[in-house]
Design a protein that fits this description.
By secondary structure, the chain is α+β, with helices and mostly antiparallel strands. The protein contains two helices and five strands. The protein is globular.
Length: 80
């Protein structure tokens, strides 16, 4: 089911960086040192916004990226 809050997700397994694009702003945030298991749980959650708020948002350091930047090559990605 599509998320009303999260437009897209991407994960770089090598750097453990989770990229999250938000609706409607299109802003991208990169969450650092996120283990693959947390990304997989987010990806498979029936409510990505609820899971994100409970387990990712306040648990990992993040940086805001420019929304116009192209995506880096990813090992795993998931459109929501």
């Amino acid at each position: 089911m599509p998320s009303t809050v999260i437009a897209d997700l991407a994960y770089d397994e090598e750097t453990q960086t989770l990229s999250v694009w938000f609706r409607p702003s299109g802003r991208r945030y990169e969450y650092l040192e996120v283990p693959a298991i947390a990304y997989d749980a987010l990806r498979h959650s029936p409510s990505k916004g609820r899971y994100f708020n409970a387990h990712i948002r306040d648990s990992y350091r993040f940086i805001q990226s420019d929304r116009d930047e192209p995506r880096a090559p990813l090992l795993h990605g998931n459109r929501v």
